[in-house]
Amino acid sequence: MSEPTRYTTAPVELPLGLEPDPTPTAGCGVCLALDGQRTEARMRGDFSRVSDLNIEIRNHVHGGRA
């Protein structure tokens, strides 16, 4: 049986890349509704839903870019 591989350096730790929330476009009803849902999800602690809504706002035709 061979010896297990041993590593002499510490593992690489990558930073958590947090982007700011996209800004909904003023006057767009869809963006406004998504922003309201995002606020409610954040208050419930449902951060997976917050992330999903950020993607929807970002990809919406009128979606704001952060």
Form type: elongated
Q: Helix count, per DSSP?
A: 2
User: How many individual β-strands?
Assistant: 0
Q: What structural category characterises the helix and strand content? A: mainly alpha
Distance between the termini: 55 Å
Average pLDDT confidence is 85
Uncertain residue ranges: none
Radius of gyration: 20 Å
- Main pleated sheet: none
- State the share of residues found in helices, binned by percent: 40-55%
Q: Proportion of β residues? A: under 5%
* Helix and strand pattern: HH
Provide a brief overview of the structure:
The chain contains 2 helices and no strands. By secondary structure, the chain is mainly α.
What does it look like?
The chain has 66 residues and is mainly alpha-helical. 44% of the residues lie in helices and 0% in strands. Helix 1 runs antiparallel to helix 2 (47-59). The radius of gyration is 20 Å and the shape is elongated. The N and C termini lie far apart (55 Å).
Topology diagram in text:
Layout: H1 29-44, H2 47-59
Provide keyphrases for this structure.
single chain, 66 residues, mainly alpha
